[in-house]
């Protein structure tokens, strides 16, 4: 009644005095009963102010939020109730204060008391309704807080975060996709939560983001998210790895050559997956598509020398002689709902014209280092070794001049690979060696060898494979 009179008299000073008294002498008092009375008084004050409560929100909210951390669960509940009434009266005027409200609510979401949690959920729903109706939401100032809170390990806090991301994604005027690089890593970490419900919610959020990415690829910051995907493509959790691999597949196919600078990291993540057994068949299949799509991005223009020379024309191959990768299969049903809707059913890539013109540099040294590492590793699976050799063959065809700088370091392991247990590996290795020997990059305008170690077939002292099957394969390839 007193506040209403002050409102009628337009006495802002008196109103602030009442609020300050309720805050300092009651809500922030040392005595629990006084704190309870102060919270009830602040809520009543807000109701009395009506539409004018927006002018005093800072003074009304701060003491209530401080009570969110009270040791007494009943006081925390009364604080929830008081803030609910304040927010309900203020409605849209509360939006500029959203960050402090979100911060307080994110902590209450993990409250051990069921009554407090119930009260915070009621307040949370009201706040979501207000935000979805508002055109004044400040996403820029909110993102740093979201980025910080998304790394919480508490299940209830994670659930709270994901629910807000889903709400913000659904608002047409809020473009959360622009800030996806800020929260993508946190989302993938939440995807590994022990709670099935939280994993499902996180899959849904990631699925919505992927839909948006496929709808408007020109506006997506692919490069800023590439390394995040590389990390999670190597996760020990199958769901995280599969989802990240599905995202990587779409990124390579949508962004095209924009992804080339990250090739060494992508190959580090993808190549080991090619040797997975049937228990991880879904991951293996998506990894195969990633591998083939990435390989097709390497073109003769990547062989342009520093001196400005034109790249060597790629040697003409007979039909069927070009390396043939595994056909891309339909994305597995278990990998994000949206991945089954992908238009990319094969390893063929769609590169938007704007992205084709993007000037990118192929980090050939990094790629060769990764390939060399896998060949030297005795634990590398057969399919991975074959994929590595296919990559080397492809690189010697598309970028022969630059690849010949690496021939000295690669040659010993290529010779050693001729004694591999797998006939298929040996055959692919022979193809690489034959390409090195016959490549025009090893010649200097038909007059001897270039500075790189050009090789002639008759100069190669190749160990003969011991198995009969391998011997037949080598002799038949020589006959050709």
UniProtKB/TrEMBL annotation:
GO cellular component, one term: PAS complex
Disordered, as annotated region: 300-335
Keyword Lyase: no
GO biological process assignments: phosphatidylinositol biosynthetic process
Top-level division of the source organism's lineage: Eukaryota
Pfam family, one: Vac14_Fab1_bd
Subunit structure of this chain's protein: Forms pentamers. Component of the PI(3,5)P2 regulatory complex/PAS complex, at least composed of PIKFYVE, FIG4 and VAC14. VAC14 nucleates the assembly of the complex and serves as a scaffold by pentamerizing into a star-shaped structure, which can bind a single copy each of PIKFYVE and FIG4 and coordinates their activities. Interacts with NOS1.
Family: Belongs to the VAC14 family.
Protein's UniProt name: Protein VAC14 homolog
């Amino acid at each position: 009644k007193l506040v209403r009179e002050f409102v009628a008299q337009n006495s802002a000073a008196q109103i602030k005095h009442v609020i300050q008294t309720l805050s300092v002498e009651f809500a922030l008092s040392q005595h629990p009963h006084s704190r309870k009375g102060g919270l009830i008084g602040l809520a009543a004050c807000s109701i009395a102010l009506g539409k004018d409560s927006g002018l005093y929100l800072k003074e009304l909210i701060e003491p209530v939020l401080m009570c969110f951390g009270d040791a007494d669960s009943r006081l925390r509940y009364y604080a929830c109730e008081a803030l609910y009434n304040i927010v309900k009266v203020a409605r849209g005027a509360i939006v500029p204060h959203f960050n402090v409200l979100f911060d307080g609510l994110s902590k209450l979401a993990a409250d051990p008391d069921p009554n407090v949690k119930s009260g915070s959920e009621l307040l949370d729903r009201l706040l979501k309704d207000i935000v979805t109706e508002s055109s004044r939401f400040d996403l820029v100032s909110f993102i740093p807080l979201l980025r910080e809170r998304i790394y919480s390990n508490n299940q209830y806090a994670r659930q709270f975060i994901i629910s807000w991301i889903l709400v913000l994604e659904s608002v047409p005027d809020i473009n959360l996709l622009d800030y996806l690089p800020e929260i993508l890593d946190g989302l993938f970490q939440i995807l590994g939560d022990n709670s099935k419900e939280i994993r499902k919610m996180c899959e849904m959020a990631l699925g919505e983001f992927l839909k948006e990415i496929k709808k408007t690829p020109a506006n997506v910051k692919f490069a800023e998210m590439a390394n995040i995907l590389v990390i999670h493509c190597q996760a020990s959790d199958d769901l995280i790895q599969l989802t990240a691999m599905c995202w990587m597949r779409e990124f390579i196919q949508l962004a095209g050559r924009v992804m080339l600078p990250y090739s060494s990291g992508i190959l580090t993540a993808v190549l080991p997956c090619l040797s997975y057994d049937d228990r991880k068949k879904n991951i293996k299949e998506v990894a195969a598509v990633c591998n083939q799509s990435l390989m097709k991005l390497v073109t003769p223009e990547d062989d342009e020398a520093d001196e400005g020379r034109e790249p060597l024309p790629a040697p003409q191959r007979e039909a069927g002689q070009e390396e043939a990768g595994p056909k891309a299969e339909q994305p597995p049903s278990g990998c994000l709902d949206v991945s089954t809707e992908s238009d990319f059913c094969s390893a063929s890539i769609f590169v938007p014209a704007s992205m084709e013109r993007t000037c990118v540099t192929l980090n050939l040294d990094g790629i060769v280092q990764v390939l060399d590492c896998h060949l030297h590793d005795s634990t590398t699976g057969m399919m991975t070794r074959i994929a590595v050799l296919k990559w080397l063959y492809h690189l010697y065809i598309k970028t022969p001049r630059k690849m010949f700088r690496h021939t000295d370091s690669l040659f010993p392991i290529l010779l050693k690979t001729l004694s591999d247990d797998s006939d298929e590996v040996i055959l692919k290795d022979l193809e690489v060696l034959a390409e090195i020997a016959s490549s025009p990059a090893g010649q200097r305008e038909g007059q001897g060898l270039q500075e790189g170690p050009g090789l002639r077939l008759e100069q190669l002292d190749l160990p003969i494979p011991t198995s009969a099957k391998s011997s037949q394969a080598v002799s038949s390839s020589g006959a050709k």
